[in-house]
Description:
This protein is mainly β and 183 residues long. It has one domain (2-177): Sandwich (Immunoglobulin-like), CATH 2.60.40.10. The protein is built from three helices and twelve strands. It has helices spanning 2-16, 26-29, 132-136, and strands spanning 40-43, 46-49, 56-65, 71-82, 88-91, 105-108, 111-114, 119-127, 139-147, 155-158, 161-163, 169-177. The strands form three sheets. Strands 2, 4, 5, 7, 9 and 12 form a six-stranded mixed beta sheet that branches. Strands 1-3-8-6 form a four-stranded antiparallel beta sheet. The protein has a two-stranded antiparallel ribbon with strand order 10-11. The longest helix is centred in the first third of the chain and has 15 residues, at 2-16.
Amino acid sequence: MKGIIILLxxxxxxxxxxxxxxxxxxxxxSPSGAAKGGGLSISPATMYFTAPKGEVxxxxxxxxxxxxxxxxxxxxxxxWDLDSVGNSLHYEDSGHVANSCVxxxxxxxxxxxxxxxKTGNILATIRVPDNEKAERESxxxxxxxxxxxxxxxPQKVSPTASVSFTSLFxxxxxxxxxxxxxx
Length: 183
């Protein structure tokens, strides 16, 4: 059993040895980011909207690919909140967060392939409903930028066992929508 665990750890290290990932704004400001050997950067880390009720706000999410191969990303909004001690809570389905803005947010495109040395732009649009709650309360959600990865073919680790990995890279950004007249 110990040998299988060591083998699995070795496979994981070998699989990820060539990956250098720089997330959020660090690639722009860090000399060890994309400029030194490449990486992936996604910005901004947080988007702030102040659209009045019944209005639309737009911002751009940028994905910079300084790797030597192209990558495809899926973008979607999910609910998130903080518990009583400040831990982040992320939900895959809706209905958990009273002040969620998930139904208001769309991404164009919601899937994008970024070629080596290129930048991909995703337009984040928030359509604030024309109602009193939207006018007087802040709303928020998480944005998941997920790298669409292929499954690695099963590797035989013993005569009776095989192992297969699916790599998942996910960066979470945050959206805050604060009505302009609420502060």
